[in-house]
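WARN  no MSA supplied for this record, continuing single-sequence
INFO  ligand: succinic acid
INFO  echoing inputs
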Amino acid sequence: MNIDQIEHKTEIDMSVELAGIRMKNPILTASGICGYGLEYLPYLDLGKMGAFTTKSITLEPRDGNPAPRMAETRAGLLNSIGLANVGVDKFIVEKLPQARRLDIPIFVNVAGRTVEEYCEVASRLDEQDAIAGLELNISCPNVACGALEFGVDADQAGMLVSAVRKVVKKRKLIVKLTPNVTDISDLARAVVDAGADILSLINTLRGMTINIENRHPILPRGVGGLSGPAVKPVAVYCIWKVYNEVAGKQNIPIIGIGGVQYWSDAIELMLAGATAVAMGTVMYVNPQAPLEALVGMEDYCRRHKVDRIADIIGTAEPPRAI
Ligand code: SIN
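INFO  complex generated
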C-alpha cells in the first residue's frame, strides 16, 4: 500500500442520507435561526453545512408577537417570536432564490392556523424545485391557534399530516414534533402512519420567566419556547425513545434537535438515533459552532475507527438496568 492509499483510508465519509436526500455532512441549521438563508452569511459560510432549514412560512405575512420576544435563562433561551415571516408568496419570489445559492439541500418550515392553510402553503412550495423537503411545524408553542394544537394530539396530528401528504407529491415531508406531550412516540407513530418521510425532534419546551420586581412575565404572552443547553437531555431521551420504538423499526430518519453546542452533543444525538443534527441557539453565541462541531465529529470517528459517520446512527448501548 503506498502513502496516498494510507491517507485516503483515514478520510472519514461524513455524508448521510435523509430519505434519499444526500447531505455532505450531518449538521444543518434549526428552523428560524438563520432567517431565509443569506442574512447569516457574514458570520458563517452556510454552504459548508449539510442542509439549511428556513424560518417558518405561513400563507399570509405575519408580524409575530410583541417585543420582547426573547428572554435569556440560565442555561438557555426562551423565545416567543410568533412565526413572524414574509408569507409564502414573497418567500417564493424573493427569498427562495437567495437560499438556493447556498447549493445545499433546503428545507422549508411550514406553519398554519388550519389544515387548509397548511395544505395551501405546502402545495405551493411543493412546486419549487429549489426545495428538498418541507418541515411541518406542529410544535410551535407561541401562537394562539394552529401549530401546537395539532402537535399534542396524535389523532389531530395524523389527520393534518395525511391532508398535507396528499398535496405534497414532489418534496420529502418532515414533521417536527414537540416534547410537550406525555408520550412522544404516540405522536411519531401517528405522523409516520399518515405519511411522514422524516421526523425532526424536538421543538422547544414550554417555559416562563417572571420579572420579580414588577411581577410580570417577561414575555408578553407569558409562555415561550425553551431552547439551548438546558434541553439537550430531553432531546437525547426523546430521540432515543422515538428511534427505538418507531423510527428505527420503519427506517424513518430523524433530524435531532435540542441544545447541541459541541461536537460531542451532535455525536450523542446520533448515537441516540438521529441521522442528522440541527444546531440552533448556540449559533447566536458562536456562529462558527457547526463548523467546529464537524471537526470534532470527524476526530471522534477517527479515534473510534469509524469510516462512515452514518455507521454510528442509533448505536447507543441499551441502559444497563434493562
Ligand atoms: C416562533 O416563531 O415563535 C418559534 C417557532 C417555533 O417554535 O416553532
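Residues 32, 56, 79-83, 137, 139-140, 142, 203-204, 225 surround succinic acid (CB under 6 Å).
INFO  checksum written, moving to next record
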